[in-house]
Amino acid sequence: MGKATGFLEYTRQEHKKRSPKDRIKDWNEIKLPMETEELQLQGARCMNCGTPFCQGGIILNGLVAGCPMHNLIPEWNDLVYRGQWELAYKMLVRTNPFPEFTGRVCPSPCEGSCTEGHIGDPVAIHDIEYEIIEKAYKEGWVKPRKTRETGKKAVVVGAGPSGLSAAYYLNAVGHDVTVYEREDKPGGLLMYGIPNMKLDKKVVDRRIDLMKKSGIKFVFNVEVGTDITTHELLDRNDAVVLCGGAKKARGLDVDGKDLKGVYPAIEFLTNSTKNVLKTVKAPNESLSAKGKNVIVIGGGDTGTDCVGTSIRQGCKSVFQLEIMPEPPKERNEETNPWPEWPKKLKVDYGQEEAISLYRKDPRNYNISTRKIVGNENGQVTEVHTVEVKWVKDEKGRVIPAEVPGSEKVWKADMVIIAMGFLGPEDTILDELKLERDPRSNVKAEYGVFKTNVEKLFAAGDMRRGQSLVVWAIQEGKLAAREVDKYLMGKSVIR
Questions:
Q1: In the chain, which stretches have pLDDT less than 70?
Q2: Which one-letter DSSP state was computed for residue 436?
Q3: What is the value of pTM for the model shown?
Q4: What is the set of domains in the chain, with CATH numbers?
């Protein structure tokens, strides 16, 4: 521990953000840099506790507590405090190949399990991680990784976080790696599911350039299972890793769900980012929120991203409807004790921006959508809702019950469904007759990642279902280890 009393002397400070009124005028990242001295004091707040729950990555009450990648957080906090930034970088990338991604978009389960957070405010782990990797790039410490070639050929299907992680580690131990991606750019949800103001796409491109210089080959605009069969890839290569994500969007089963102007969140966000990057020749104006009354159905980070994107596109109004109750402002120690992930209310960037514009939080809780209504042209015009309260049924299950007289009609020119994902798309799974788990994901045991097809492995959301970016990266790494064992008999990947 750099300073034994640091956690008593210094208060938590986070990255400052550009003001909402300024940032909604562009698509640039929101965060502002932190002063080096301030970051060192934040590192000094780490208690270096005997059991660092921050790096545990265990499941408690259905949610992850601590970092799934088991980042060596106390170690690099201490090194930052001492000003040993290059060593801090080396310690960070021992477990995390892409800190520039997690330092921007990870919800930080590490902070939710910080011992300091049990008695006060947690250490600003997320911000320290971000600054370590950005300083490493600035100083030229981040370099391509090359090693002696094994002569083995591996293919990764999908260039999202799990696919990039698998490719990174397979290449690092000397295999010839090719990544197939059906989009025109790599990154998966990092590229087209997360808006530019949260993760500038130049950051993704920067990492991909390094991976290419390391010898990894990328093939874009090719959909495996359609443009090329998975059987062909298996025949031509020594191993294939499926990292295609879980992009089958969860729909809303109500009347009017198929009206014009009703879109899945991923379609809306993808179109927006392609327009920002100017990778489409003709913008799809129907997918723009400009001048429209927007209703976002669903909470979570994706719902927030839809709010922030709608505001930047120039919407007339935006509301967010959530069927779940409003979380408490503070952790409930009886039902949600530390070190579980804290289920408490937070005001994220999208809500901040809506409040700045409309003087009101866009979120509305305990709201169930009854139907979506359109005009004679099939264009959405209204969303009809009712309030619910959560009660126990005769079997003790907590279910929503409608509140009589609470019906409401919301004006809507665009409805965005941000209710998560159901599982992977069927194309490859049907082609290979892959075994599935009860949730329709590829069946492959965690830690083994082997499917029922020879030479074929699966990782990330395609295997575990929709999850955090840190889980995707960790699964890609561990799947690469198992592939390496399969090809070489043993592996140095840890």
A1: 1-2, 282
A2: B
A3: 0.96
A4: 6-139 (1.10.1060.10), 153-248+422-488 (3.50.50.60), 251-419 (3.50.50.60)
